[in-house]
Amino acid sequence: MSTAPRSRRARPAKPALTREGIVTAAVAILRAEGLRKVTMRRLAQELDTGPASLYVYVRNTDELHAAVLDELLGTVAPAPAEGDWRERLEKVLTAYTAMLLQHPSLARSALTAWPSGPNYLRLIETLLDLLRSGGVPREQAAWGVDLLLQHATATAAEHAGGDSQGDRQALTRALREAPADTHPHIAASADALLSGTPEARLSWAFQALINGIEHTAVPH
Amino acid sequence: MSTAPRSRRARPAKPALTREGIVTAAVAILRAEGLRKVTMRRLAQELDTGPASLYVYVRNTDELHAAVLDELLGTVAPAPAEGDWRERLEKVLTAYTAMLLQHPSLARSALTAWPSGPNYLRLIETLLDLLRSGGVPREQAAWGVDLLLQHATATAAEHAGGDSQGDRQALTRALREAPADTHPHIAASADALLSGTPEARLSWAFQALINGIEHTAVPH
DNA sequence: ACCTGAACACCGTTCAAGT
DNA sequence: ACCTGAACACCGTTCAAGT
């Protein structure tokens, strides 16, 4: 009984391939299994076709990943309307970073495959707006946006990949065990080098970046 | 005559596998063919053995890449003895970035697989020394080192991978074509967003980071 | 124009078996 | 303990052939 077909086909008709459908399927695989599984072959399997078919709509794997990021960028909370411009700036950047931290491997690929979709432009516009409202000169604000977005992306990307926990632990040990005669500063600063929650360090980093952008003139 | 063996074997005796020998061979492949070819299989072929043999000395591919970076770190010029602490700081950081820029894919993997070898520790010690000599408080200097190294690594990593040129071009177009009514700041700042040589931007970024580190207190 | 099967040229990692 | 062949379970991308 359970195997009796309800129509001529047991499954819904295979939908036509579109770029949008491909990206949607890619996002679904990302959420369920991570970016490592968002491969041409796995995606083709999901869409009930062969990998070669996807190349009509997507140039290569990198472009596919960039499209996926653009899609997720639409879910990032916009800047809060209330508060000091610095606070608001930090909030947007934190929200962007938090989204990337849910998919660190995507952040890693975003560092290389630059997004250029509507959602990314909207984010740039927001950051420029906030910096300008804080009185930051136009050139500094423009170069500063790059710095802020790069920091957010790189911070998330650091959490990608296999054994980053293990590597971090190795560095922690190396810092704690550095002999004071050859590495006096490390020995004196070991605690400070390793202190702070990730949230506290991210917040401090954004504040330092904002202060630096404010106080550093662009050449010429 | 040319094919006559000079001893029982035509080739020198196969050297015993060591971790050091593996890393050396990996560096050679990196220089000749790029990180993409530094794979377990390719490396095994180079060392005239099977890929499984390498797993006695190296946990996995990520660890191999980290060891390669540590090796290259030894070639980075030390800090100049002369000059203002800011200038000296910028020089070391620029030298480190330049090395990574010769192997951007290695920078990409360094963002995830943290180095912890002697050369990396030496670099951290140098950066701490310079920041402290500029009067930066210990905690700020410690957190700042992270920020500076991350920026250098991420900047180099951005140049890794396939079609980053193409992606960059797409972003350039998107910024230039952003309509002024929906994206007034981008429209007004398009030139500034795209101005400056990579060198000028890197130099500005390091200065902004240093200024930010100087002017931003660590919480608590 | 779009879609496909099949092929080319690779991967990382594990494991049982050897020395 | 160290080393290995062979296997498992995958990859991206291209191309000639079909519809």
Question: How would you explain this protein's 3D organization?
Answer:
- 2 copies of one chain form a homodimer.
- The first copy, chain A, is an all-alpha fold.
- Chain A has a domain at 78-215: Orthogonal Bundle (Tetracycline Repressor, domain 2), CATH 1.10.357.
- Chain A is 65% helix and 0% strand.
- Chain A contains 11 helices and no strands.
- Chain A has helices at residues 19-33, 40-46, 51-54, 61-73, 85-101, 104-110, 118-133, 138-157, 164-177, 184-194, 198-215.
- In chain A, helix 5 (85-101) packs parallel to helix 8.
- The longest helix of chain A has 20 residues, at 138-157.
- The first copy, chain A, starts with 18 loop residues before the first helix and ends in a 5-residue tail after the last helix.
- The relative contact order of chain A is 0.09.
- The model of chain A is unreliable at 1-11 (pLDDT under 50).
- The interface between A and B is large, with 79 and 79 residues.
- Chain A binds a DNA duplex (19 and 19 nucleotides) through residues 17, 39-42, 49-53, 55-56, 60-61.
* Content of β-strand of chain A: under 5%
Oligomer: homodimer
Approximate helicity band of chain A? 55-70%
Structural class of chain A: mainly alpha
At the first level of CATH, the class of the domain at 78-215 in chain A is Mainly Alpha
Instruction: List the helices and strands of chain A in order.
Output: HHHHHHHHHHH
Distance between the termini of chain A: 79 Å
- Given the C-alpha coordinates, what overall shape of chain A results? globular
In the CATH hierarchy, the architecture of the domain at 78-215 in chain A is Orthogonal Bundle
